[in-house]
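Hey team,

Filing this mostly as a record. A colleague (T.K.) asked me to run one chain through the structure pipeline before their review meeting, and I want the input and output archived in the tracker in case anyone asks later how it was produced. No errors, nothing strange. Just documentation.

Input sequence:
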Amino acid sequence: MNIFEQPKIDCHHHIFDPQRFPYAADSGYHPQGHELATLGHYHAVMQAYGIRHSLIVGPTSAYNTDNRYLLAALAAGEGRHKGIAVVPRDVDSQTLADLHHQGVVGIALNVAMLGVEPFLQLDALMGRLADLDMIAQIQVQDDQLTALLPLLKRSRTRLLFDHSGRPDVRAGLQQPAFQDLLALAGREHTFVKLSGLAKFSRQQYPFSDAQPYLQALLSAYGSEKCMWGSDWPFLRASERMDMGTLLLLAEQLFPDARSREQILWQTPLQLFGFNH
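Output structure:
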């Protein structure tokens, strides 16, 4: 069975519909043109490529902490979607519980975009997430993870690292922050998205300089703690990006059929609580 035929869960994509849900005034970037991506359009993408479920990630771009479109999409999705929301860092437990009830499985910590400092003392938020069995989805880049380690090591929250940790491909596999990410594979309830190669590669598709990092993560974490995401609709892409070519690349990167089925289906199915 080729990758287009097998069941898949896309574990990272966004939706934008400024006509129905205007962008937040305080957001730093407003997607336009080919970056616009409504839920209806994504449903057509799902049908075209055999994607059965998805994890919709609320973007810091465009909507910031305005989760209205995310929640509307979860309500309209008939069980096809779960969500990652962006919230104020002092969000209370009741607000988190309300989001969880509506299909939000975790909260995005966008360290790569906002810097390390705001996230160093988030013990209260991490505790609230743990109490609700929600996920802290963490996006770091370059050497940022090292500074976050004290917080993460004293936390009992489920962790999901975004976009392969976005390492500095010029610094090599032995760079300290990437080694820290590999070491966290031994922490219980810690997962990683084998995605976002275009975010940290210095080359064009198929992002050959980034592939060794993805393979090292898969080796350390195992397919039971890894998943795949497209990053559709490819905000601020520096070159042409297509869902089909990314799936072909995933098929090449995960040639073992059993491992690929685990990454594309079983791991996210269980972690996010989708029904078959």
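Quick notes for T.K.: The two ends are 19 Å apart (CA to CA). Strands lie at 8-13, 51-57, 81-85, 104-110, 135-139, 158-161, 190-193, 226-227.
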